[in-house]
TrEMBL record:
Signal peptide: 1-20
Organism encoding this protein: Triticum turgidum subsp. durum
Keyword Signal carried by entry: yes
Subcellular location: Cell envelope; Membrane
GO cellular component: membrane
Protein name: Leucine-rich repeat-containing N-terminal plant-type domain-containing protein
Matches recorded under PANTHER family: ICE RECRYSTALLIZATION INHIBITION PROTEIN 1 (PTHR48059:SF31), POLYGALACTURONASE INHIBITOR 1 (PTHR48059)
Residue span, Leucine-rich repeat-containing N-terminal plant-type domain: 24-63
A Pfam family: LRR_8
Family the entry assigns: Belongs to the polygalacturonase-inhibiting protein family.
Length: 423
């Protein structure tokens, strides 16, 4: 009797397992039609998708009870050709569609927008073209939309007031043009907004960020956006990354940026911003020292924020103007005022109010320099020099260290082995 009961339970288990992997016949036909219309890796997919238990197929997920397909994930499968819209439209209960990193061509089919239950949609890194349809507004349940790295063109449709569940919106690296759609302001749940590397133009203030309290990342870089930095960004207290580089923004750098306590990455380089950097900006504790190259002065901003927004690591560099920063390297030439060399050797500085934080064999001319290191040559007036084996000339210098050679008058000198000439 016990053996019969075990056998019965085993048979029930097999039946349940088989039922769990079976899928609705409409979804089975839709998936077969989808695979049958694909080029490239479609042949491999058709071979892998055999039988009628499509809920057990690779990349397919179903709900637990009715056998309806809710998930289709096939990123990087080498699939090519137009998107089989009619077949995808047959997956009436689909909630997640991830077809990124393939080679789909053509435009997004209209039938795709009939999948009103979609919550996540990604076609990133394909070869899709054409304009984005206004039928996008039918997908009211979307929380993620990623169409980045394709070849879309034309204006972004002003339909986002119907997509208020969006959390992640990424359309970077396309050919979208025209102005920003004001309906982006309606995305109350949005946390990530990336429209980098398009041809968008017009005032950036067409988007009102005040109603986006959860927004953590904004990237509008490498477009043609104009106007001043929108004050509505000041209401985005959760903002961690703000990247607006390579646009046509004008005006001053507003003081409210310094009040974004969670900001970790700020890049507003290569615009037409003028004026001083607000003092509050240098006090943001979460901004760490950058490890970037030319033009990225406001990425992970250090305490050495400078007005010209040029921070260099490559060497040797030649800089003119004011408020430039060299983080490291050697053989740099700086002229102008208020320049900073954080570390490095064999730098030449002229002008006023320059700083060498560390390094050796630097040559400074002008006035009001601050120098530390060794074997530096400093001339003119009112310098502060720390280190050893430095040569200092001029007046009113303060020199500490050993083996320094000092000439001129009215110096304050401490240390040993000094040679002093003058009054």
């Amino acid at each position: 009797m016990a053996k019969c009961q075990l056998l019965l339970l085993f048979l029930v288990f097999l039946l349940l397992a088989a039922h769990a992997k079976s899928c609705h016949p409409d979804d089975l036909r839709a998936l077969q039609g989808f695979a049958g219309n694909l080029g490239g890796g479609g042949a491999l997919l058709r071979a892998a998708w055999s039988g009628a238990s499509c809920c057990g197929w690779e990349g397919v997920g179903c709900d637990g009870g009715r056998g309806r397909v809710t998930v289709l994930r096939l990123p990087g499968y080498g699939l090519s050709g137009p998107v089989p819209g009619a077949s995808l439209g047959g997956l009436a209960q689909l909630e997640e569609l991830f077809l990124g990193s393939n080679s789909f061509t053509g435009s997004l089919p209209t039938s795709l927008f009939s999948l009103v239950g979609l919550q996540k949609l990604s076609f990133e890194s394909n070869q899709l073209t054409g304009q984005l349809s206004t039928h996008l507004q039918e997908l009211k349940n979307l929380t993620l939309l990623d169409l980045s790295v394709n070849r879309f063109s034309g204006r972004l449709p002003d339909v986002f007031h119907d997509l208020t569940s969006l959390i992640h919106l990424s359309m970077h690296s396309n050919g979208f043009s025209g102005s920003l759609p004001p309906s982006l302001s309606s995305l109350l749940s949005l946390r990530e907004l990336n429209l980098e590397n398009n041809s968008l133009s017009g005032p950036i203030a067409r988007v009102n960020f005040s109603g986006m309290p959860l927004l953590a990342s904004v990237d509008f870089s490498t477009n043609n956006l104009s106007g001043s930095l929108p004050v509505s960004l000041a209401d985005c207290s959760a903002l961690k990354s703000l990247t607006l580089a390579n646009n046509q923004l004008v005006g001053t750098i507003p003081s409210w940026i310094g009040e974004l306590d969670n900001l970790r990455c700020l890049d507003i380089s290569n615009n037409s911003l003028v004026g001083e950097v607000p003092k509050g900006l240098t006090c943001l504790k979460c901004l760490a020292t950058a490890d970037r190259s030319v033009g990225m002065a406001f990425t992970n901003m250090p305490l050495y924020v400078k007005r010209n927004r040029r921070v260099l690591q490559q060497q040797p560099n030649v800089l003119s103007g004011s408020n430039n920063t060299v983080r490291s390297g050697g053989g740099n030439v700086l002229s102008g005022d208020n320049n900073t060399v954080i570390s490095g050797n064999n730098n030449t500085l002229s002008g006023t109010n320059n700083t060498v934080v560390s390094g050796s064999n630097n040559v400074l001319t002008g006035s009001h320099h601050v120098v530390s290191g060794s074997n530096n040559v400093v001339s003119d007036t009112s310098h502060v020099v720390n280190g050893s084996s430095n040569t200092v000339s001029g007046r009113n210098n303060m020199v500490t260290g050993n083996n320094n050679t000092v000439s001129g008058s009215n110096h304050v000198v401490s240390g040993n082995n000094k040679v002093i000439t003058g009054g």
